[in-house]
Design goal:
single chain, 296 residues, 6-stranded mixed sheet, 23% helix
Length: 296
Amino acid sequence: MRRAPLLTFSALLTLLQFPYSVSVTVMTSKPKVEVHENTNAVLSCEFRTEKEINPRIEWKKKGKDVSYVYFDGEFTGSFKGRASIDGATVTLRGVTQKDSGVYHCEVTARHDKIRLGEVSVSLSVLVPPHAPSCQVPETAMRGSAAELHCKDKLSVPPATYSWYKDNKLLSTAHLPDINYSLDPKTGTLKFKSVSKSDAGQYRCEASNGIGAPKSCAGQHMKITEFELNLTLVIAVGVGAALLLLSCCLAICLCCRRGCCRCCRKEKKKRTQKRHITKHRTPTDPRHYRHTQSFMI
């Protein structure tokens, strides 16, 4: 009696991965793929059909809109010329951040009872830090607050930040003798009240564990004292004098024209006084002759 042949390890593994079913079976050996920028990304897709010999294979990328990657036996759009397929597994060459996203492998077996099978693969393209943009005030007045900003918008995952003063790393610890605070996630360095000792050259460094850290060029921050400027004082004094003279001229002109209330009252009083004086002057000629004869 002939014994049944023993199953090899690879055959057993295949049976475990693709159990007997009456429909197309689709799976991936790596549902999450992380690769560095400008390298190749392999999107695994494996399938097994019940009866179909030549199933239809499609790849789609999901985002705001669903777009085809592989359709009707060829790659489409930006994937033309930089992608290849082996079975149902796709290899993307020279990936960039734009290639990050969720991809769907769909296998259609028309002669199987359940015709469609699909699997998803998530692709993350890791981007090393770029030289961050840094904002350092050129001058700050002693005793005032000051903020320094640092940002790298391109790194994936997001970068964390460190600040250096005169090439010495600034501590992020909250100690009593430190008059600043530093947020490694936002890259903001805040001074509550700057002093002369805070003057110096500042630079920021971005790092995310992908590639080497990158720094911006050092920028100098100067601490100034409040000083009275003689020219400014003279200019303010002359301006105040001209303003006072203009006000006086305006008041005089207003009084002449009788614009203001006090001037109108004064003018009314003078008019009434002249009217009374005029009323008391004798106008009758007989009264005038009688007065003359009496005096003689």
